[in-house]
Hints:
This protein is mostly helical. 90% of the residues lie in helices and 0% in strands.
Amino acid sequence: MKRIVTILLFALAITLASSAQNSRTKFATDMYQAKHEMIIEELGLTPTQQKQFMPLYEQMEREIYQVNRNARALANEVEKKKNPTDRDYEAAASALSNTRIQEGDIEAKYFEKFSKILTKKQLFQLKLAEGKFTREMLSKKRNKK
């Protein structure tokens, strides 16, 4: 009997964990989709521009995401250690601090590519649209509290 209850509890835990992961994945997908739609609208991209620009933009987002993910992973490792060394703290702090530099480098690399697809005005509007999206999401989050 105990074995059956344990197995059922384990199965329930796996189901709940899977459901939570699916919710996070769906939320992230929805957020990216909403952001992309806003960018397309704010920049007034033509269908041709969309085909050329959006895959590059998504690739840039993935690279930036990976930089941040790696830094967060290192920071999480240090937090979980029982007795982190000064070297551990330094490596994590450096990784977290350098994410902005790396993000800037990635954005600069893609700005060059974007400039072959977008007009000068659209390049300018891109940063405004990204900022607008972030402000709107933060505003919605604050209003939920």
